[in-house]
Amino acid sequence: MILDDNPYRQVGTPRRGGLVCVADHASNYVPEGIPLGIARDLLNDHIAVDIGVNGVAERMARRHDVPAHLACVSRLVVDLHREEDHPNVVPTESDGHLIPGNIGADVEARLEKYYRPYHDALEKWLEAADPKLIISLHSFTPKMQNGDDDRPWEVALLYNEDDRAARHAIRLFGELGLNVGDNEPYSGKELNATMNRHAEAHGRYYCAIEVRQDLIATRAEQSRYAAMIADVCGRVALALD
């Protein structure tokens, strides 16, 4: 649910020079008045929300001193991790599912009500926090319904032009015995909108982390990955000094 009509919420208080977490796809909430025209159970599918991310981010914020900026609206309403002019910022199809309610939608109205307040608040939050490292947290489905191969990676690091933090994280997750994707299962050269805007454009270090969704489906698994990500990213931040 959107709190106080805001498409975001913030958990924890950042400390200057610390770590923060950003989760653009943390919610499957669809506000009243936006009929998507899809089966209700699809709102629990990966097309509507990054499964497990909200739980991981909440635990990172409350237990590991990594404050979080979390989306409170589904990516099917407006995709906060796309540029404003991206053709799928209000998707009409996702992984083989038609989103009929978005065909002919008032894209500008959704940008104004949800997208811009989310990013404006994130910009101010990051300016005040001046973090050493931003963790952009997402999750990916083990297999797309459109026939793609299975995705073997357990975690992955995405990046566009700046891979300085990602290189350390790839190594550290690998040392924990994980199968780590390097710009897999999709490339940050193409899908890095939030970090392009709020990190790379300002010279801020970031780790765009993807976790496979079947590994963070339960609270216990979310706790495990929250601790692991907080620890690895804390060591990344030290390595960047």
Explain the overall architecture.
It holds the Pfam family FGase. InterPro entries: N-FG_amidohydro, UCP029730. The protein has 241 residues and is α/β, with parallel strands linked by helices. It has one domain: 3-Layer(aba) Sandwich (Aminopeptidase), CATH 3.40.630.40. Helix content is 30%, strand content 16%. The chain has 5 helices and 9 strands; from the N terminus they run ββαβββαββαβαβα. Helix 3 links the parallel strand 7 and strand 8. The chain is globular and about 50 Å long. The model has no long low-confidence stretch (mean pLDDT 95).
Structural class: alpha/beta
Q: What do we call the CATH topology?
A: Aminopeptidase
Strand order of the largest sheet: 1-3-2-6-9-7-8
Count of DSSP H/I helices:
5
String of helices and strands? EEHEEEHEEHEHEH
Helix content: 25-40%
Strand content: 15-25%
Q: Return residue spans where pLDDT drops below 50 for at least 5 consecutive residues.
A: none
Given the C-alpha coordinates, what overall shape results? globular
What is the count of distinct domains?
Answer: 1
Q: How is the main sheet built?
A: 7 strands, mixed
Protein name: N-formylglutamate amidohydrolase
Pfam families: FGase
Labels describing this entry:
241 residues; alpha/beta; Aminopeptidase; 7-stranded mixed β-sheet; two-stranded antiparallel sheet; 5 helices; 9 strands; 30% helix; globular
